[in-house]
Amino acid sequence: MNSETPIPQHAVELADALRAALQHVFRRIRQEGDNDPSGLSMQQKMLLSMISQHPGIGVTELARLEKVRGPTMSGHIKILQTAGLVRRSAPDPDDRRRSGLLLTEQGASVLEEIRGRRRDWLARKLAQLPPDGAAALRQAIIYFHELGE
C-alpha cells in the first residue's frame, strides 16, 4: 500500500487500539523505572540509554537526536559526569575539540538496574496471563518485528 491507497477502516481501528494499548504499557514500564533508588530524572535515564546505544556519541549529536539545544544538553551531561555515570572519551584525533561520551562502570550498572526493574515488572505481568494469552503475544511479536522493518 502506498500513501495514496485508501486505508481500510478495520486497519485504522486496529491502529488506534494498538497505539493506545502500547502507550499504556510503555507508560507503566517507564513508571517502574521511576521507582528506582538512583534519583535520576526520566531525561537522565534516557540519556544514559542513548549513550549506551551509541558509545562515543558527541554532545552535539546527542542534542540533535533529542531535539534540545547544545547548552541544555551540556548541562545534562555535566550532571551525569558529576554523578560519576558518564565520562568523556579521549579527544578525536581529527578534531581535538570533540570528545565522545561513554558510560562509566557505575553508569552501566545503574542503567542495567533500571532495565532489570522494568523487565521484571513486565515479566511478572506476563506470568499472570492465561496460557492462550501468552501464546497470542508470542505470535504477535513476529508481526511487531515485521511492522518495525
Output the CATH topology.
Arc Repressor Mutant, subunit A
- Beta content comes to 5-15%
Question: What is the total number of structural domains?
Answer: 1
Average pLDDT value? 88
Give me the CATH architecture, please. Orthogonal Bundle
Spell out the helices and strands N to C: HHHHEEHH
Broad CATH class: Mainly Alpha
Q: Using the CA coordinates, give the radius of gyration.
A: 20 Å
How helical, in percent, are the residues? 55-70%
The major β-sheet equals:
2 strands, antiparallel
Find the structural class using helix and strand composition.
Answer: mainly alpha
Overview features:
149 residues, mainly alpha, Arc Repressor Mutant, subunit A, two-stranded antiparallel sheet, 6 helices, 2 strands, globular
Topology:
Blueprint: H1 9-34, H2 42-53, H3 59-66, H4 70-82, E1 86-91, E2 99-103, H5 105-127, H6 131-148
Antiparallel strand pairs: 1-2
